[in-house]
Amino acid sequence: MSNDTAFPPNLLPDEASPEWFNKADNAWQLTAATLVGLQSIPGLMILYGGGVKKKWAVNSAFMVLYAFACVMFCWVTWGYRMSFGSKLLPFWGEANVALDQKYLLDPAFLGKFPNATMVYFQSVFAAITLILIAGAVLGRMNFYAWMIFVPLWLTFSYTFTAFSVWCPDGFLAKMGLIDYSGGYVIHLSSGVAGYTAAYWVGPRLTKDRERFPPNNILLMLFGAGLLWMGWTGFNGGDPYVVSTDASLAVLNTHLCTATSLLTWVALDIIFFRKASVIGAVQGMITGLVCITPAAGVVQGWAATIMGLCSGSIPWITMMVIHKNSELLQKVDDTMAVLHTHAIAGSLGGILTGLFAEPKLNRLFFGSSGHYIGLVYGFDDKSRIGSGVRQMGVQFIGILFVVFVNVLTTSIICILIRLVVPLRMSNEDLEIGDDAAHGEEAYAIWGNGDRQENSFYRGSINPKIELPVSTNRAARQAEKT
């Protein structure tokens, strides 16, 4: 028996683990990406499924599942290179595939791991952005319109902001915008786009807007828990290295989130005399969103202040301003993404410009350069101008993301409704899941049998049956 270790002829040991490759960094990056993926599948899938009326549980969860799969396909086919590839415009990269072995095994533009790892890591960020948008249009958007919306918005909106903010060639990246892990690219974008899409899709039925209780609060909490814990990878993975900065980002994330949740609950008790579980989840989400652009570049005391702000300011905009504004109430934002993501994301971006600490900026960016929070600019009199400039850049980033998402989302929705209706018919809205998919979430009568209208009635039997009629008139005729 030979003592020589056998390797496949095309995969020699030095090629599988070249000098530039760091095994620990690669392992953490893959783990972080999977944690972020779990935030969507199954995190937001069951949070949405449990947080809506029973008749919309299947449709809401299915919108998440479809978006995740669709984004993954589009991302490797053209989306990643448009977001992180060669510069086409100051805010957009050239379209190209990320499927070739040579490209995928080459080192990523940041980090000591291959492009394949970076493509995967960024794909789950792109996916969760679309899934967050879905939260604004649950309970009435035509599923076929959603199927068209996802690839179009990924291509003509997400790639704009991702390239501008995160790609080294992007104009906002060159200006020095601080967006540690997606406060702008993901949360501000999804909040603005979701609210805009909700305007074009139109409202739910009046009775659903007036009363839309969760069908399963415990299930919703389970999804929320996955979202919170998954954020460890969301913010902990963005230094692209197993570093002290990654550890700080994770701790700051959980500190800000806990503070925000407690603040929101305290306000509920003070003004409504009752602690709300749903309110606690909203406070959790606003805390997670607010700390995201700042996670690894602020100190713990600043993360605590950010938690106090994210638990109170979005609470005021949602519970006071929104409820007293006829203008805001004209748009039916099912999961309040305007407040939990757009406002909380903007707040996080502004507070990042205030509290970003020069030493931590050096750890993250490699050089402090002009990255300095206004607080530290005033502390070091010689850098006041840099601190003021940083705040200005943070505001410019907000304006750019808002403009891009209002414009592109509106154009996409207008074009889609030329092909299919954006909103389901009122008749279908009365029925919900059964009208949209021929399936229902819970069988709570008889012997638990409720599959006569499903495309896959014989799911226990491996033989797939032919689809039954899904036309309502035909089904009604069959029943009578």
TrEMBL record:
Family label: Belongs to the ammonia transporter channel (TC 1.A.11.2) family.
GO biological process entries: ammonium transmembrane transport
Organism: Populus trichocarpa
Keywords of this entry: Ammonia transport, Membrane, Transmembrane, Transmembrane helix, Transport
Every Ammonium transporter AmtB-like domain range: 27-442
Record keyword rRNA-binding present: no
Transmembrane annotation, as ranges: 27-48, 60-80, 119-138, 143-164, 184-202, 214-234, 246-270, 277-295, 301-322, 334-356, 395-420
Pfam family, one: Ammonium_transp
Record's protein name: Ammonium transporter
Residue ranges the record marks as coiled coil: none
Membrane topology note: Multi-pass membrane protein
UniProt cross-references to Gene3D superfamilies, sorted A to Z: Ammonium transporter AmtB like domains
InterPro entries: Ammonium/urea_transptr, Ammonium_transpt, NH4_transpt_AmtB-like_dom, RhesusRHD
Highest taxon of the lineage: Eukaryota
GO MF annotations in UniProt: ammonium channel activity
Subcellular location: Cell membrane
GO cellular component, one term: plasma membrane
